[in-house]
Design a protein that fits this description.
Radius of gyration: 24 Å
Shape: globular
Distance between the termini: 67 Å
CATH topology of the largest domain: FAD/NAD(P)-binding domain
Helix content: 25-40%
Bound molecules: NADPH dihydro-nicotinamide-adenine-dinucleotide phosphate
Strand content: 15-25%
Number of strands: 21
């Protein structure tokens, strides 16, 4: 049977665009439907604009540090609307590059919401149905909001945080994950009185415990008010803004309340159930290691599958799908040892297992840990500390976890991830000569085992 397309991709984000381009390069006829701007969460309302906001907000800290180095700055002011306009210009430029890349590869871009009518038929809003041999779902995720919370309609998600008409004077951010912690740093850096409220005993569940505690201390040193073990029970309008009421009987006034309490896979309204695609309870599309669903001609990549929700992972999954299906090169992306960074201030770079997870998986592990003041801050006397930690499996002597909280840690961790992916042992790691004077040299000079409180070696 002849179809209109060999491949129909729903969603032009990082995963969908990569898959469409690589598939089209095989000579396949490929269409990509996108209901919003091309680029997906990462380019339009995630990693990229977020990083610009991090850069913008870091200047305040640099200005403060510069005083210790003899600088006098006067009249440093931040212009939020001017920054937003420049940010939006750059996002439009990047989105345009994505569009051109798709077109250059020979894929057809269709603007509109697409929905499966059956496994081989896609209906696009405002157009007739088209037929396709294969389908790729790459619709990503969306902020999850606590819909039953009284007054939640007064709160924003990260989507709106990129477009606030005015910079608030005070903000309350709910959540203790990547997004909450990153935005707390951004708003605090921009001079906004920032309160972070998280329901758990510590932020960033899943990260190494030393990293979590260390970062909390550093956030507080920078002026962020961190409230742990509490969550919103209501958001109410008040004469001066919004009142957040918390489960610990406390309340807090602010101009903006932002919820960053997780994201959900965007799988509703796509006709997936009609086509027979199996979803998990949270809406994630169930796939095998080749990103194939239970329906033979339908695949899914990226956040909609809720595996590791990171842009580079979606790209690799999209590429692996296209190589497998259109280039006859069976490829499955290996989800082990994927490094990640939290662009908090200071940032975190992390790869491999936390100490707790390594103890569960390997039993006996050695820990190497250093906390120190960076050279840049010893000069100014600022009380800002870095943390570096290695987790080593005693049996194989391999490094199974590396965690850094320090300026530039996202850059540092990329290199560590290469060595760890190759299975580096602690001895091989230590045989690497240090680069001096750097922060990262501490990583290759940690010789003494750290004995956590309450443990004996
Ligand atoms: P996360 O899943 O990382 O964190 C969600 C946070 O919200 C957790 O602290 C969670 O608490 C809390 N939470 C969940 N439900 C509730 C609730 N009902 N009430 C109060 N608190 C609640 O989600 P994010 O939205 O921060 O980020 C989503 C994903 O996007 C990340 O996991 C990451 O994969 C990706 N991302 C990556 C970035 C990067 O690479 N730098 C940046 C931003 C996002 P608890 O721990 O108790 O469950």
């Amino acid at each position: 049977m002849a179809y209109d397309y060999d491949l129909f991709v729903i969603g032009a984000g990082s995963g969908g665009v990569r898959a469409a381009r690589v598939a089209a390069m095989s000579g396949a006829t490929v269409a990509v439907a996108e209901e919003d701007r091309v680029g997906g969460t990462c380019v339009i309302r995630g990693c990229v604009p977020k990083k610009f906001m991090v850069y913008a907000s870091e200047f305040a800290h640099h200005f403060k540090t510069s005083k210790g180095y003899g600088w006098t700055l006067s009249d440093a002011r931040f212009d939020w609307p001017a920054f937003l306009a420049e940010k939006d210009k750059e996002i439009a430029r990047l989105s345009g590059i994505y569009v051109r890349n798709l077109q250059n590869a020979g894929a057809e871009l269709i603007h509109g919401k697409a929905r499966l009518i059956d496994a081989h038929t896609v209906e696009i809003e405002g157009r007739g149905p088209v037929t396709t041999d294969k389908v790729l779902i790459a619709t990503g995720g969306r902020p999850w909001m606590p819909r039953d919370l009284p007054g939640v309609e007064h709160a924003i998600s990260s989507n709106e945080a990129f477009h606030l008409a005015e910079l608030p004077k005070r903000i309350v951010i709910a959540g203790g994950g990547y997004i909450a912690v990153e935005f707390a740093g951004i708003f605090n850096g921009l001079g906004v009185e920032t309160t972070l409220v998280h329901r758990g005993p510590n932020i960033l569940r899943g990260f190494d415990d030393d990293v979590r505690s260390h970062l909390t201390e550093e956030l507080e040193k920078r002026g962020i008010k961190v409230i742990l073990g509490a969550q919103h029970i209501a958001v109410e309008k008040s004469p001066t803004g919004l009142t957040s009421r918390f489960s610990n009987d406390h309340e807090c006034e602010s101009d903006v309340v932002m919820f960053a309490v997780g994201r959900e896979p965007y799988s509703q309204g796509l006709g997936l159930e009609t086509a027979g695609v199996t979803l998990k309870d949270n809406g994630a599309v169930v796939v095998d290691s080749y990103s194939r669903t239970n329906v033979e001609n339908i695949w899914a990549v990226g956040d909609v599958t809720d595996r590791i929700n990171l842009t580079p992972v979606a790209i690799r999954e999209g590429e692996a799908f296209a190589r497998t299906v259109f280039h006859d090169q069976p490829t499955s992306f290996d989800h082990e040892m994927v490094a990640s960074a939290v662009f908090s201030q200071p940032p975190i770079g992390s790869v491999g297992l936390s100490e707790a997870d390594a103890r569960k998986q390997y039993g006996k592990v050695d820990i190497y840990l250093a906390r120190f003041r960076a050279m840049k801050y010893t000069f100014t006397g600022a009380d800002e500390r870095c943390l570096m930690k290695l987790v080593v499996d005693c049996a194989s002597e391999k490094i199974v976890g590396c965690h850094v909280v320090a300026p530039d840690s996202p850059e540092i961790i990329q290199m560590a991830a290469i060595a760890m992916k190759m299975g580096v042992t602690k001895a091989q790691w230590d045989s690497t000569c240090a680069v001096h004077p750097t922060l990262a040299e501490e990583l290759v000079t940690m010789r003494e085992k750290h004995v956590p409180l309450g443990l004996t070696v």
